[in-house]
Amino acid sequence: MLLSLAGFGISIIIFGISTNFWLSFAMLLLSGALDGVSVVIRWTILQLYTPDNMRGRVAAVNTMFISSSNELGAAESGFTARLMGTVTAVVFGGFMTLGVVGITWWKAPKLRKLELQE
């Protein structure tokens, strides 16, 4: 999961600095695919590690956080683009993604070593 998120961050950085249409298109395609992989892995973790009697409630809370994070992220992106400029904001977002992945990699070794086999 962390590798797919790191790949997402790198593809966003390349998209942000690219001036070639086809490279930009490929990076957006790749970022969408990597984001999809991370979503599937996160939902798999949620299903495998949540106790049966709590699964519905945990899934509901997770959905609320995901839904609200998209809206907050859109507002943050617009605010950042207004302050920094569009290209800088996109590249900044990619580096922030890499920073969050790095901190998670360092601070959550259990997640880093997670095996999804029952």
Provide an overview of this structure.
The protein is mainly α. The protein has one domain. Helix content is 86%, strand content 0%. The protein has helices at residues 2-17, 21-49, 55-84, 86-107, 109-112. α1 (2-17) packs antiparallel against α2, α1 packs antiparallel against α4 and α3 (55-84) crosses α4. The longest helix is centred in the middle third of the chain and has 30 residues, at 55-84. The mean pLDDT is 91.
Topology:
Elements: H1 2-17, H2 21-49, H3 55-84, H4 86-107, H5 109-112
Notable traits:
118 residues, mainly alpha, 5 helices, 0% strand
In short:
The protein is an all-alpha fold and 118 residues long. It is 86% helix and 0% strand. The chain has one domain (2-112).
Fraction of residues in β-strands: under 5%
The radius of gyration is: 16 Å
Q: Give the low-confidence spans.
A: none
Q: What percent of residues adopt helix (DSSP H or I)?
A: over 70%
- Average pLDDT across residues? 91
- This entry's quaternary arrangement is single chain
Secondary structure tally: strands: 0
User: Can you summarize the main beta sheet?
Assistant: none
Instruction: Note the run of SSEs as H and E.
Output: HHHHH
Global shape? globular
* Number of discrete helical segments: 5
Secondary-structure-based class equals mainly alpha
How many domains make up the coordinates? 1
The termini sit apart by 18 Å
